[in-house]
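Lab notebook, bench 4. Still working through the backlog of constructs that have no structural model yet. Next entry is a single chain of 185 residues. Request: give me the structure tokens for it.
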Amino acid sequence: MRALLREHPCVLLIDEVDKVDQAFEAMLLELLSAWQISIPKLGTVTHRSIPFVVMTSNETRSLGDPLRRRSLYLRMEHPTVERETQILAVRSATDDPLLRRQMAGLAKALRAWSMEKPPSIAELLDLAQALELMGVQEIAPDMRDVLLPFLAKTDADRKRLLLRDGFESLVITANKYRDEPIEVE
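Model written out:
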């Protein structure tokens, strides 16, 4: 409502729109169609300016057709290993560039496994913090049980990572990314 009442246009962020209920989605339709919000017992709030609306979605459920028709859809892929390593360099306390590359490589390997909930950058930052607290310099296959809560967010993903060679093969792939020459832009 504050975004509609501002004198000058602003950015309105609606994060994880796929997790809202039908009533909120209906309110969004009114907002995006008429730039107003109807509030029972208060009336209708109309816009003073039109905000630039950005909605994010993790695609946990499909949005309704009317809402999708009113949206420009841009798919953001996960970052490359190089970019994720740069993010870890800025946002984590991990000083070791090889460990940062190994973590980014592990995230890429996990995402290639078509997990139900592949690790996001936020989860990778949590992993980096945990490794820092444990004093870990390198991720090893025998660390599977300790790292599992940071990497598997669903029961199905946990079971896949508990397979005999599953985690070990992911670490081997992560080490390949870690050991690749770093591309300089």
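Notes after review: The chain has nine helices and four strands. The chain has two domains: 2-69, 81-179. Flag for follow-up if needed.
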